[in-house]
Amino acid sequence: MFVVVLVHLLVAALLVVARRQLERWAFVVGALGPLATLIFVVANWGLHHGEAVTEKWDWVPAQDLEVSFRVDGYALIFLLVVGGAGLAIFLYAQRYFTPARGPTMFAATMTLFAGGMVGLVASDHLLSLFVFWELTTISSYLLIGYDDRTAQARSAALHAALVTGAGGLAMLGGFVLLAEASGSYLISEIAANPAENSFAVGLAWVLILIGAVTKSAQFPFHAWLPGAMAAPTPASAFLHSATMVKAGIFLVGRMGTAAVATVDWWQPAVVGIGLVTMVVGGWRALRQYDLKLLLAFGTVSQLGFMFLLIGSGIPELVFSGLAALLAHALFKATLFMVVGAIDHEAGTRDLRRLSGLNRSMPVLFAVAIAVSLSMAAIPLTFGFDAKEAAFHGLVHEGVLWVAAVAGASVLTVAYTARFVFGAFGPHVKGQEPAQGRRLRLSNLLLAAPATLAVISVVVGFFPALAFPVVDAAAEAVTGVAEAGELLLWPGLGPPLAWSLASLTVGSLLAWRSDLVARAGDAVGVVAARLPSGEGTFRRFVPGLINFADRSSGLIQNGSLPTYVAIILLVAIVMPTVAVLSNGATLVAPPSGTLLEWVLGLLIVAFAVSLAFVRRRFAVVILLGGVGYAIAGLYAVFGAPDLTLTQLLIETLAVALFALVLRHLPATFARTATARTPRLVVALLVGAFVFAGGLVANAARTPSRVAETFLAQSIPEAGGSNVVNVILVDFRGFDTLGEITVLVAATLGAAGLIRPVIRNRRRS
Amino acid sequence: MSLISLGVVAVLFAAGTYLILQRMLSRVVIGLGLVSHGANLLIMLSGTRPAPPPVIGKSQVAAVADPLPQAMVLTAIVISFGVTAFLLALALRSYLLTGSDAVEDDLEDLRIRGIEGEEKGASA
User: Fold this and answer.
1) Please, where are the H alpha helices in A583-721?
2) ipTM for this prediction
3) B55 with A720: Cβ contact below 8 A
4) Which residue from A83, A319, A417, A621 has the least number of CB within 10 angstroms?
5) CATH 1.20.120 domain extents, chain A
């Protein structure tokens, strides 16, 4: 598995490095990535009964951080889609781009994405899954914004990246919470022993669901996916229909069984979200004129369908969901490539301006028909086989379930008809037809969609071909083998009745599309008043930036005193809260000896006058007074070394101040700083230190370190003055460091002063 | 630690803070010096009472003052002198170059406020 991911990364790097040499064959080279994936899939074909290929690389062993891959049947079906659809789309892209447009970077990004997707579905460690997840988000951003000269592409790319990125962050939080509660970061272990429900675990599942919902464009975060259609068609076909948007579905499937066992809201939430997404996506698809947007909303709807089935954790539904996943990858990637070919040749994707393509592009028409039947789930197609399996499972769950999904499927049938008739049907009156260019497709542009269509048709007729893959995948996550069946003819029964009912109603809707349009206008009037996904996002981002400007303008007002005051107040509040909430014992201190009082009052008098005196030389003298009085206090408390040091340093400091202040004006200039707030903050700091000192005083315990020092001073260092021994012997290196600091400060001060003084002398 | 020495520490902190919270760099340096004095005293005096110096052979080992805070404070006194000297040089250079040792408002921060003001004006 490492080899496969590495091949992707190396090919992507090669494309970047040798972009000039590989310009003509960029996508063929890039196709080596998906090809490696496919080879891996074939080599491991038929993984069954909980078998898995595992590989592990210790990344940061001390932190239990590892990249560990575990490919079971469930990962394999996703790898099949990534490799298969990838290979077809890469070859298609080779012809789609003309070399003049410099698509090498595009090919490199697509390959990088494919590597990320492979790593994502194969990861067993939650954090490596997250890393690959974000890799797909970033490459998706680059691909949507590929046409960086248009503002629309840039803003769509940002929209997609912000929504999926925010979801990814939420998911990361969920992963950490879940892993801490479960005691393991390995998905396989979490799935085997789900953590018991608690507040943290519940929150973790909410966050993980948010990650899945945003990535798979589920309601209410679906709006980014249609926007992402600004990307060139190969990217839309690969990322935004076949693979990346299925990452969220992958996640709910992978963890769904554990989630259902832990939290009781998971199943209704997933099913509800999926159902609403199905309806919203299907309805919006019916109202589109751009073929690509129609497919995009159709994808939203289909993703809702798969989300509902695979996330439900019910074995039979998971089984049918995985079959639908395969079917969807086959028909939707093909349809995107068909639209790309139409756009490429006819110069438009507007279904009002296209007509008669069934005659000018017969093969493309046949391909489109073949897979569209599968999308609409017409009998004898793969889409039908999958949907039949779903209805079979849903009937077991209850009539409401099946009725809801069948109702939503009506829309699928209707928008499929809209797509086919819109693209290939006769000309609509009153619309200017497109100025068709050559309307002759190159074979390469046709080969890839045709191949996928053939596979789709063959699998539709022989669903037994797909059964082992789907069954192994379902068994890997649910533990139940043969939970469902894929049958060409399911036999008469309720599931078939539901299928036929939704087909009939859907066809009626397609037939009376004018009624749909009128109803759509009526709904549109109402819907315009409701907040839409796109509009909300568009208002949200500037609002957020505006809020950031305002709040930082308020807090960060440019004044240094304000910043210092804020820092001090926070420093006061935090420990105060901690002490108050934990309680502290206070011991009344002794009032102090007469000598202490004399020295103390002197210091107080000097310090207070220092704060208000404006003449500089008075300041120097007062400062010296404070220092000498403190030296006296040290003597009282049995620290002759300190007294000595303090006296020396204070003398030096007074001399230094005198030398510097000589150059400055005789008095301090008055500045426009408000006095009262300064005084309040200063008094608060004083009170805080006083109270803190009382608390600390009562909490002090005799020092054990000092006892060792006192006992070892003579035997180890041969000195009787313990303070000196500590400084030059026990902690000698600290003193060396202190001397270094002094030297650095001296050099710095000299460097600051000397040039200025020299200049003054010269002038 | 006696009531009066704790009071001295508190006053040193308060006066130092008052000086730090204004714009003249040379007064900020003096304020920092006062706060350093206060911090040194606090470390040195916490939980002690007047005692003989920690010199072995002069008095009973059990009765002497704690040598560890003394060693730490001795280091701190010297270091704070080094910092004070450096800051004074900074203040002096600022004065010699600009004619004032006041700290002006940060231009970049003012710019952010300016953007906010413009947007307010535009939306109003």
Assistant:
1) 594-612, 616-636, 640-661, 675-699, 704-712
2) 0.88
3) yes
4) A621
5) 560-703
